[in-house]
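User: Before I run my own analysis I want an independent prediction to cross-check against. Here's the chain; please return only the structure tokens and, at the end, one sentence I can use as a sanity check.
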Amino acid sequence: MAELPLNTPAGILVKTTCVDYPGLVAGAFFLKGCNIRCPYCYNIGLVLSEKEMKERADYEAISNDSELNSIQELFDLMEKRQGILKGIVISGGEPLINPYTPLIIQKAKALGYKIKLDTNGTLPDELQAFLDNENLRPDFIAMDLKTSPSRYGETVCPVFSKFYKNESYWEKLVKRTARIVASLPSENREYRTVLVPSLVSKEDIPQMAEILPEDASWQFAQFLNKNCLDINYNKISPYTDKEINEIIEYAKTFIKGAELR
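Assistant: Structure tokens:
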């Protein structure tokens, strides 16, 4: 297998973050490429292919806002700040489909970093393969839970759902991933939900909570209605603080570890 180039644009480097790895000061790298298309996603330059980017009416604006870093820049940061940063976050896009993810994990392990991997929750086989490999096993997993599992096909995966006749295809994947993540110790995992009004309401909470372990850390985040993958989502008003509190308090009746991040 040919070696992957380390100096080509591969994602977005965040040199220091205190919020992406619970309890640790970390560096983060958001890799290109994703297997789904969440309509509210704001990482357009990471998710879309160059062809998809050029097909957008706002191509010039989003391409100018998508300056990417190389893996070598990440490696240089990791070496330079060894002993200062404690963790490395690998996010995306979707890192489980990116060929650079194993390289980053191996480099981070060699330098003594704790590794957190973010996943959208639709790739249980790939996640299990990483966890089964001691050389690639992350220390912490964060799984996105975007809406009720039964709604994935109509909301965040419609572009790809036409390839699958089984209506419960995505639901099964999400539930399997949630079970895999739940097998980790509670301090090594979390579940994350963005409060998008069209995707997450009080009515969705019970079905979402049903697939989580009782001791889950369920982290909610406010929806930002700008630079969305689907431009129609820029017109959706975010929940008010009162509405957010009501949803989270309701979620707490199912999962005590539900909170706004």
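Sanity check: The chain has a mean pLDDT of 93.
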